[in-house]
Amino acid sequence: MPRKSGMRNLMNSRSDILPLVLDDVSFEINGMRLIKDLSCTFEAGPRTAIIGPNGAGKSLFLRLCHGLLTPSAGTIRWAGPDGANSVTAQAMVFQRPVMLRRSVAANVDFALKLRDHGKSDRTVIIDEVLGRCGLRRLKDNPARVLSFGEQQKLALARAWALKPQVLFLDEPTASLDPAATHAVEEIVQAIHHEGTRIIMTTHDLGQARRLADEVIFLHRGRMLEYAPTETFFTEPKNDLAQAFVKGELLWWKLGKDNRRAGGHEVDKAPRRRN
User: Fold this and answer.
1) For position 25, which CATH number holds?
2) Which end of the chain is more exposed for a tag (fewer CB within 10 A), N or C?
3) Residue-wise pLDDT tens digits, 74-118
4) 237 neighbors 85 (Cβ within 8 angstroms)
5) How many domains is the chain built from?
6) Which residues contact 213 (CB under 8 A, 6 or more apart)?
7) Are 160 and 188 in contact (CB under 8 A)?
8) pLDDT, tens only, 228-237
9) Could you tell me which of 108, 111, 71, 105 has the C-alpha nearest to residue 88?
10) How far apart are CA 118 and CA 70, in angstroms?
11) H helices then E strands: how many in the chain?
């Protein structure tokens, strides 16, 4: 089937919403600051991996960018005429994706209906995206009986069908075996190659090397390093980043080390998992 479909037309019909700018963003719950004075800019093009130990704030960071959470302080701004409507120009796939009580094809169809695609357009897009994600033979199967790896591929297919300008991925291969991980990574690469900006969290340093052009290192809610991938892994400037790349546990790195490394005061952080 020729790839002229509404998938590509959907992207071409919108104005750019990038760059995404975070300016001194903090987020707190019950007086506990979990994200602290975070500033960065995401331009169009590169793939970004957000890494750090458990409890660093990686998933919170994505949820703030996606708009699921509102900053307690600071601002998050999308650019361009579509900035105010960024919710329709970006998407997020969660570590545990929500599967609707319907077939594989109907899960994608539901998302397309919400964007007002006509039936004939939806049929073409569904067939194409399920084929490219290796799910066409399962299109009539109930989504909730798929394996976890297949569900993750369906979540990616559902997002890809909408042709987002930015796609946030929260640990997209957590708990997957190597074969499923490889399949998901190939889909992520294909989505990126069609022009979607990828911003993802991962606990897998090898995956960060394979998929990312740049790396953000978080620790206790602070961004301690933001660098090209190769630079980060070969010459990390921050001492906590150096320890993390070497595989050292950072639980014993208290305020003294963090102040020396990042120049910031360290707030008491709760024990939470991303």
Assistant:
1) 3.40.50.300
2) N
3) 999 998 654 555 778 999 999 999 999 999 999 999 999 999 999
4) no
5) 1
6) 45, 46, 47, 48, 228, 229
7) no
8) 999 999 999 9
9) 111
10) 33
11) 10, 9
79 domain-assigned: yes
Angle between helices 119-132 and 148-161 (to 10 degrees): 140
Neighbours of 259 (CB within 10 A): 12
The set of long-range contacts for 239-244, using a CB threshold of 8 Å and a minimum separation of 24, is 241/217, 244/51, 244/52, 244/53, 244/217, 244/219
Q: How far apart are the first and last CA of the chain?
A: 40
Residue 267 lies in a domain: no
Is 12 a residue whose pLDDT tops 80?
Answer: no
Question: Is 38 among the domain residues?
Answer: yes
Peptide bond into 19 cis (omega under 30): yes
Q: Phi first, then psi: what are they for 180, rounded to 5°?
A: -65, -40
Cα 176 to chain center, whole Å? 17
Give the predicted TM-score (pTM) of the model.
Answer: 0.86
In a domain, 72, yes or no: yes
Residue 17 has pLDDT above 60, yes or no: yes
Query: Which residue from 4, 7, 2 is spatially nearest to 126, judged by alpha carbons?
Result: 7
Residue 21 lies in domain: 6-262
Helix (H, G, I), strand (E, B) or coil at 90: strand
Taking each helix axis from N to C terminus, what angle separates 148-161 and 104-114, rounded to the nearest 10 degrees? 30
